[in-house]
Every structure is written in structure tokens, then in C-alpha cells.
Design a protein that fits this description.
The protein is mostly helical. The protein has one domain: Winged helix-like DNA-binding domain superfamily/Winged helix DNA-binding domain (Arc Repressor Mutant, subunit A, Orthogonal Bundle). The protein contains 8 helices and 2 strands, in the order H-H-H-E-E-H-H-H-H-H. The chain has a two-stranded antiparallel sheet. This is Rrf2 family transcriptional regulator. InterPro entries: Tscrpt_reg_Rrf2, WH-like_DNA-bd_sf, WH_DNA-bd_sf.
Amino acid sequence: MFSKACEYGIRATLYIAEQSINSRRVNIKEIAKAIDSPEAFTAKIMQQLVKNHIVNSLKGPSGGFEMPNSGFNNIKLYQIVEAIDGDAIYKGCGLGLKECNEEHPCPVHFKFLSIREDLRKMLETTSVSELAHDLKKGIAFLKQ
């Protein structure tokens, strides 16, 4: 459903949030390893997340990426998805067809509407903080 970049973006944000709970900044190399992503690709994703004010970036020897504690309560998953993939997940065809709409639907168009709406609700109501705390407690995982 999400692009690979978006999957990595969500995982990176959650990893940074989990580390930020302990007031710890992380660098690109550490993020890439933690989310099992190529380092150069991770760096491009991180640029988008910083540009969209999802994570903070600090330069220098004690720099790295972090999320302020007040920030993760306010960041919802939909913000990460929109920063990386835009709103295509809500508008694109479920089968990937270029021409799919109410007047000219694909075979799954109307069945996919409710799935899309449920996904939108989940993304809009799930905070990064909630998921980062699940990671910290060990009841959710970023790697297998």
C-alpha cells in the first residue's frame, strides 16, 4: 500500500521517536541499520521528514536526528505518509489503473472505498508517540 520510501519513513520516524524518549539523538548510519534500509536512501527520506517538520536535525559532533517530546504527541502517521507519498494512497486506483473513478470504475473501485476510508482514519488518529511507546515497551517491533 505504501511506497518503500514511505515504509522506511514511518520506520525511521518511529525509531527516532523511540530513541528520543531517552533524550538520544541518532545518526543516518544508525537509523539505516535499525530500519534495514540503504544509507543513501535513508538520507533522502530523512531530508523529506526534516523539511516537513516531522523530525529535527542538528549538525555537529553531538548532532543527529531527534523528536522533541512535545512533538511526538502531535505527529500523526498521515503526516509522514503525506510528506513522502502525498495523498495518492487516498486517490489512486486500487489496481493501479490510470483511469479509475466513479464514472469509470475498476473492478474493485467501490469495495476499495471503505478500505481507503478505514486506512485514512487509522493514519489520522494514530500518533507517533503511541507507537514509539509500544516499541519501547517491547510490544511492537521494527525488525523481525
